[in-house]
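Hi P.,

Sorry for the delay on this. The queue was packed all week, but I finally got your sequence through. Input first:
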Amino acid sequence: MKMEKKINLNIIIQARFNSTRLKGKILKKVNDKEILLIMIERLKKYKPNIIINISKKNPDGIVNFCKKNKIKYFFLSDSAVLKRYYDCATKFKSKIIVRIPSDCPLIDPKIVEKGIRLFLNNKYSYIS
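Then the structure:
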């Protein structure tokens, strides 16, 4: 996708450690790989510029994961999710954001790519 080189498109994954149903689920392993890593590997097949947006509640496990796997990360206040996204996008000079929750290990990168193409080829401000 040639247009992407002219703009800064970042996939920002919202990562929380404190799930009420299963704490730490994004770092649980399936076949010796963390769920978050499975998701990142699927997305990197298409778009390598991925940032993990971490909430401040218990960020150590996710920060360590990011450092170990050489993945960019950002964290700020838990109470302001939208502000955290805005500040993350600003820090990494994002012009276009693809927002993805961290508990989607079976995410289809082809669907993400299709959404990005649709966005880039039209005058939309938002695609879901």
